[in-house]
Specification:
single chain, 367 residues, mainly beta, six-stranded antiparallel barrel, 27 strands
Length: 367
Amino acid sequence: MGKQKWLAVGTLMAALVCTSATPATIVRFSQGADGETNISTPWGDYTAVQQGDSVWVGTPAEFEHNRVAGIMRDHGSKEFNISGKGKRNNFIDATLPVTSVGNTAIASISISVLFGEKPNKRLGRAAKPAGTEYVSVLWLQDSATKISAALYDADAAVSYAPYKCIVESDLHVCEFQLPTQALSHKASIGFLARNQKPGLMSVESISMAQYTEYLGKRKSSPGEASSHEDRDALRQLHAVDDRVPARDPTDPVHYNLKLEICNAGLKQFGGPGQEISYPISLRIRGASYSFYPNRTIYNIYAAPVSIKSKPTCYAGLAKLAKNPTLEEPPAMGATLDVDYGISTDDVTGQQHQIQFSATVTDVLQMD
């Protein structure tokens, strides 16, 4: 049995020297940035990680892959062996439905109504008759098996075949033309391949399936406003299925305010004929000052108003410019503080900052 000797090299490095009749073998150890132990041997490099009562050992590439996979899992993704790409570093949305056709896994199943889409010759998408909508079903799969989709309206007991199925960049797509009333019916999506056991996904309705998928995606961006396209789609889904809300309940509040704005007069400046420059930045009383990021801001829009030496009040419209904390609008009759207004002397051009107050006279809901 050969003799073993440890040699300390700094604080993060050590070498294990094995001596025998054969030349010495040197194995080096070092500490990694994430607490892992790196092991360098003449026959390859390895990484070791303590996992409870055991130690995982693998190559640096395997360690990095597992590290990335853990991060992606924390963000709602999972690995999937996309056909033709292999498994490594292919991550998909873990919230989307899965099924299988024979031995082929089907994942990232997405169904959506293509509101506003035009006819498309390449997709075989003919002009749609009144009272119908285009519907698409998309998915990924882990083999090259030729698979198509079919839709079944369970309430009407009617099946629909796709007018076209294509594959684009690993994404499998089948499109259908359905009566509008079918969008709110209980439905199933079948996945079919010759001589294979079919796969099936049942949904409360096509419209609700699209809404559920939308909510899943919104969880990854909390606090951000939905896009105009998303808001349009929700309104259109609500029109065909009232179980879908007309607006996203997690959306930031959007509103404008009608105000009565008053100033204390410019007597202290001793000059009539002063005017306010617009817009004026407002803050709700008690909120953070302008240099803080979490501040609700409005901009006032009105024609320039001549400010006399006496107190003056006039009507203004405050448009919401920023609402990062999703605050509800102030109640009618509430008083807002104006950070400042700029008064310009018509004769001298001299500017003054003037304090204003503003009372809410109406709250206007925005889109």
